[in-house]
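Run log, item B.
One chain of 184 residues. Sequence copied directly from the ordering sheet:
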Amino acid sequence: MARKESITLENILTTAFEMTREEGYQNATARKVAAKAGCSTQPIFRVYKNMEELSQAVYGKAIDFFRDYYDLYPRTSSVPFTNLGMAYIAFAREEKHLFELLFLAEIPFKKSMYEILNGDKGNVKVEISNAATLGCANAGGMFMQMWIFIHGIACMSLTGDYDLSEQETKVLLENSYKAFATSN
């Protein structure tokens, strides 16, 4: 009778993802993942060709996690780019290591920030369309201005240099949109 496999691809992926989430993607090595999963490195390399393949799977799972996070994030503003910005900033605060992996790390299989944000539902395109509907002549340019601002806030929150509340951040984003709209 053949021995039943106790360590599955899903076990390994989940373990590596949780390690990445807690400790950062650099710390999810084969030996550490195996130790946390309660196995040797052999099962990892039985289901993944190498660590890059596992890293790509973790990266894909992190993208899905971010998209689910964004989909569930409360929508509290009618001002374009505010809800997307609020979710992005909150994600940086709450999921520092995943944020670093998705939006800051230089890895060979990385997707663009735009691809991740836009997702399958066209999140960025919807925001740009909303801005155009509200009379913004250059809604794509407005996205770029807002996104530079939003990304800066998110990065500042990673370093502890940003301590405004959610409400203060919402007002800041709404006011920034209005200021950018009048300057264009």
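Observations after the first pass:
- The radius of gyration is 20 Å.
- DSSP finds ten helices and no strands in the chain.
Flagged for discussion on Thursday.
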